[in-house]
Design brief:
The complex is a heterodimer. Helices cover about 30% and strands about 20% of the residues of chain A. By secondary structure, chain A is an alpha+beta fold. In chain A, the strands form two sheets. In chain A, strands 3-9-8-5-6 form a five-stranded mixed beta sheet, with no helix packed on it. In chain A, a hairpin with a 4-residue loop joins β5 and β6. Chain B contains ten helices and no strands. Classes of the chains: A alpha+beta, B mainly alpha. Chains A and B meet through α2, α3, α5 and α6 of A and α2, α4, α6, α7 and α8 of B.
Chain lengths: ~300, ~190
């Protein structure tokens, strides 16, 4: 006789595409005959989507979720709904936890024009802007070749090294003027931030990242002195508190690097949030460091 | 000759689900929701079309006089056949299939591309929430607050406050969430 916990595990495996064919058929027969069981499955599915949106899935669950759930357009759309709902709820929760549900609902509806109030301090954030870490080499590679490769999702070099001209271009290289400057490596700017571990200082100046025209990539380096966690997660949040990008770096302490397409950042205020994840337990919020993006 | 769903055969399907027409309508929606999820969970493309195909076949069987005792279980058997056919069709016509619009592959490294749609999603979510009565909006917002243990405690308190069982509350909110998701999916595809 299976326990409720075992059943829940089987249902989770089913939803993540990891159940055996026998388990699949058995569960399908059961939830077809038992609407309550079907609702339990939907609840687990929603819970998985919510935990994904909150970055609370275990690494194994996250891999399975991205491999199975996000491959399906309709399920992906449901996850998008979860992410939007969660981000908005978290935002209204952060605004004022003393509000009633009714006031929260009213706030939520006006949140499209919500102006984020900085509640988490950015006291120790000092910025070293390595602006204009330009990478513009004028070699013999046509620029549209690079664009083709980037559109195809070719990963960019994680370190600022000059890459050789690409050889396996799917398109023939058009003739170019020898005077024309042509990019062979991504043009990037880097902002180095020190994780704000002290909260509450309102006098700290917000570090600013200036993105010149033609920049391909932004590299955000977050330095921190935290130690002792099994894993870490660095998330980029917009001014409204919505997570735009998140990484779980292999580094166990010290310095974390986030690569982003420059086009994905518009002008405005952003935050880099650092969380520590113990081997057994929920993630701890360690720091939230603000910075500003301006486009030249 | 291709069989098509008629008004009479649809009425027969509803009657099979419940003799009370209002309850039959609700049960039809429940059945459709279950089948749609089945195809989604099994990773079938065009889940809505396959759900409709399953319901059509069920209506046809009833119109032909088949005695169905457990409608949902019987519908599930048909759905499995539809799914198998879909997979076989995919294997047999893989070359042709690849020409068809497929579910776009998800690449975690390209996640930022989806984030560009965040504003549109937020706009649609807001529009869809506005379609709900005030009380319903409050319920959804209250239900999805918090995470982990705090969420469990909060939901239990909410159920007590509303005077319903936790399971009943969960079912109600899940249906609302499904409606919300369908509305948002429709909204973002229209924009």
């Amino acid at each position: 006789m299976e326990t409720p916990k075992e059943l829940q595990k089987t249902m989770t495996r089913y939803l993540l595409g990891e159940a055996t064919p026998v388990e699949q058929e058995d569960l399908e027969e059961r939830y077809a005959s038992d609407p309550e069981l079907f609702e339990q499955l939907v609840a687990i599915e929603n819970d998985l989507a919510d935990r994904y949106a909150r970055h609370e899935l275990s690494p194994a669950e996250q891999v399975a979720f991205e491999r199975h759930v996000l491959q399906h357009a309709r399920r992906r759309a449901r996850v998008e709904v979860a992410k939007t709902l969660i981000a908005t709820l978290e935002k209204t929760d952060t605004t004022d936890s003393s509000l009633s549900i009714r006031e929260r609902a009213a706030n939520w509806l006006s949140s499209i024009n919500f102006s984020w109030r900085l509640t988490a301090g950015v006291a120790a954030a000092t910025a070293l802007l390595i602006a204009g870490t330009w990478w513009r080499l004028s070699l013999s590679q046509p620029s549209n070749t690079i664009k083709v490769a980037q559109n195809a999702g070719t990963p960019k070099s994680p370190t600022p090294v000059s890459t050789p001209p690409m050889q396996a271009s799917p398109t023939p290289a058009p003739s170019v003027s020898p005077e024309a400057p042509i990019k062979t490596s991504p043009v990037f700017v880097t902002l180095v931030l020190n994780a704000g571990l002290v909260r509450g200082s309102e006098n700290a100046q917000t570090p600013t990242l200036a993105i010149p025209p033609g920049t391909d990539e932004v590299r955000l380096r977050l330095n921190s002195d935290v130690k002792g966690y099994a894993r870490y997660r660095v998330s980029l949040l917009n001014a409204e508190g919505k997570t735009l990008h998140s990484i779980a770096p292999s580094s166990r302490s010290g310095s974390f690097l986030l690569h982003l397409p420059a086009a994905s950042l518009s002008e405005g205020e952003y935050f880099l949030a650092l969380s520590g994840i113990p081997s057994n337990g929920e993630a701890d919020a360690l720091s939230k460091t603000s910075f500003r993006v301006v486009k030249k | 000759m291709t069989w098509t769903l008629t008004e009479d055969s649809f009425a027969l399907l509803l009657k099979q689900l419940d003799t009370d027409s209002e309850r039959a309508g609700e049960k039809y929606e429940d059945l459709r929701r279950m089948l749609l999820r089945f195809f989604e969970w099994r990773g079938a493309s065009f889940a809505e079309e396959r759900t409709d195909e399953t319901l059509n076949r069920l209506a046809r069987k009833l119109a032909e006089g088949v005695n169905v005792l457990e409608t949902r279980a019987y519908a599930m058997q048909i759905a499995r056949l539809v799914l198998l056919e879909a997979f076989k069709e995919k294997d047999a016509r893989r070359a042709d299939w690849e020409e068809l619009p497929q579910e776009p592959a998800y690449n975690p490294q390209q996640r930022w591309l989806e984030e560009k749609n965040a504003e549109r999603n937020l706009f649609c979510l807001r529009q869809c929430m506005l379609k709900f009565p005030d009380e319903t909006r409050q319920l959804i917002l209250a239900y999805y607050r918090h995470s982990g243990r705090k969420q469990i405690e909060h939901r239990a308190m909410l159920a007590v406050k509303l005077g319903v069982r936790r399971e009943a509350l969960a079912n109600r909110v899940q249906r609302l969430r499904d409606k919300l998701a369908e509305c948002v999916i429709h909204c973002v595809t229209q924009k």
